[in-house]
Structures are given as structure tokens and as C-alpha cells.
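Open question from group meeting: does this chain pack into something compact, or does most of it stay loose? Before anyone orders reagents, we agreed to write out a predicted structure and look at it together. Recording both the input and the output here so the notebook holds the full record.
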Amino acid sequence: MPKILITGNGFDLNIGLPTSYNDFIKILSYISGKNKEINFHSIFSNSNDYRNILEKFSKFEFDNERIAQLKNQLDHNLWFTFFSKEYEIDTWIDFENRIEYVLNKLFTSLEYLQKNVFSKGSIKSKTLIYNSDTFNNDYELIHVLANFSIVSFNVNYQITLNDDFLKRRYNFYTGIDISKITKLLISELQKFKSIFNQYFEIFIFPLYENFKIELDKDYYNNIDYHYTFNYTPTFDKLFKLSKQTRFLHGKINSVNNRIVLGINEIPSNTTDKRFFLPFTKYYQKLNNETDYIFLEELKMDRKADFMFLFFGHSLDRSDRDYVNEVFDFVNNLNGVFKKIIIIYHNTTSKAQLLINLLDIRGKEDIDKLMRQEILAFKKVGSEELKDEFLKDVSTKYGDVFTF
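C-alpha cells returned:
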């Protein structure tokens, strides 16, 4: 029976690594500030669980030259500037949803401005100043536009359009250059991805070499395949097994900078989808040639037995294509044994995981699978879960499945 482990960011968090969105934004916000002290304590005391880091990792010195270069990038990146001011984002799912929100706000407002400001034809430069009524008194939108340098405003909310993003003909402005704005947003997102990569290389990768807790490496000996939605090589670095990890959204590498970081779908109310496409995960997966093939790359026998284990994955609708692929595959198996195990941290996380599955798959499918004991929830660290991991039935099928 092939065992397939699918991990998300919760897998890294369970190890003790500061890879949550809050860890990322708080540590980088500290770097971007006027703080001069850079050491193990000053950096990781900004994380969600510094005590846990002290218990599990030995202290080490940072590469101050790389940190100085990173700080310079933080000071000039528009996406980081925006997110450093957002205080209601808790998870990477919220982060991606906020990207979608910003894009939707921006492009909808630009289309609105195009129709209302330029509806009567070309305008002269002296008329580029407007009041908040022009933006339906949407002050949040005005701040978003200002953050990305599309407009500027004073204390009285007199708003000036940035003529760098206007189409010009002779001495008149004829419209908003949405294409130019899109290129700016894409370029800044690419630079943000570089910042993201460097965060992990500078602050997370050294933790692998300074991990001081003895791990039970036998725990994963019977895993046949490992797929991860993470960008980090945590499974390979700490468990050092022969299994090859497949990175579904790309992996950390600041030189190549080819990770998938964006939105799941284009908003339905958008009039020109071309502007949104570069921000979508599916475009980035195709363009970056990440390991997006998922289960198709396995030569699977429908009559064999399979076990899938989701560890640290949110099962959110942003990855519903992958979730559906697993559940549809299991539903169509003809083997004697088939199992999907959802690993949870506590009762609250279990409840949320169940809600997310019901949202993606619907009541009928989830109810049927749980009644048939095909779908089960196991708590991390429990003996029940350990038994599932250590159960070795791979020899019967081990020669059938290859990458």
C-alpha cells in the first residue's frame, strides 16, 4: 500500500520553525525599522513562539551583509510596504486573500476612473486634482491607490492622479494606462517574492543546522511519496530520507525566484482578465514549471491500496483543485483498502479543517467517507497516528509505483 504524505505550513510550524505569516511580517518589520541590534534574540523574539525556538534550536550568528541588502529591498518594495501596515492578517491564506482584494480594488477603481474622469474626452494636467467624491468617498481605496503610487493626497483628501500612469497625447491626458500599472504591480510582486525567498534563506535555513532535538526519523520510513505545498526543504533537511519531495508551489531559491505566490481565481466581475492572469497561481505554476503535475506523475494501479496523509495543510478552497484530485482519486479506487487521514493540532483546528472539507467537497461526500471509515481525523502526536505512520504494508506494492 503506497503511503502518500502531503504537507503544508503546519508541518513546519509543528517542528518549531517560525514560518507563519505573523513570524514573517513581524521579523521583517523589525528589520525594516530603525533597529540596529541584529542577533538571535532581537530577531526571533519577534516570532510567535520564541520560547519554543530557544528550546529546539541553538543560537547562531546571522549574515549581516545579506540582512543589510534585504533591508534595502524592504524599504523600496510597494507590496511589503502595504502588508506591513495591515494588522488583520493572521495566516498565509488571509495574505493571499488580501492580494486578491487589493487587485480587485485597484482594477475596479481604475476602470471606474477611466469612465468617469475621462468620459468627456481628454483633460489638461491642471485638472488632475480631485476630491474624495470622485472615489465614492472610499478612503480605504484611496490609501491603497496611494500605497502603490497611483495617486497622492493631502490632509484634506485632495487627490492627485500620478501622471506617470496616464496615457498622454500632445499636451493632454487621454486615459489611465492600466497596462503600465499592471507591469508595476507584477514587478513589485516579483521583488516581494525575492524578499520572501531571502527571509527563509537568512532566518530559517540556518535553523536546520542548529536543531538540537532528537527526531524520531523512523516515523516517516514507510512514506512512499511526499508532496508539499511549502517552499521549504524541512522534510528532506531534518529527516534525511531517500524519498524525493515534490514542491507543488516551487521551493526557496532566491537566485531562481520561481515560487508560486498569488491568487487562486480571477474575480468574476473583472472585464479584462489579462491584467489578473500573472497574479494567479495556475499561471505561475505553468510559467515557472513547478511540480504542478501532482498525482498524474505516479503510475497508479486503481486496484491497489492507498493511504493519503494530510499534515499541516489548511484544506482551504485556495487549493481545492489538489484536494479534489485526491478525494476523486480515492473515490475511484477499486482496492480493498483506501484511506485519507487528516492530521490536526487541536479541537479548534480539527473543526476548521472539517468546515473547509465540507465547503470543498459537500456534505454528502464527506459524510459517506467518514461513515465508511475511509476519511479519518488523527491528532498529531497521538498513538493512533503513530500506528498509521509505522504500519508497513508497502513491500507488496513497493515495486509497482515509480516516479
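Observations to bring back to the group:
Confidence is low (pLDDT under 50) at residues 395-403.
The radius of gyration is 24 Å.
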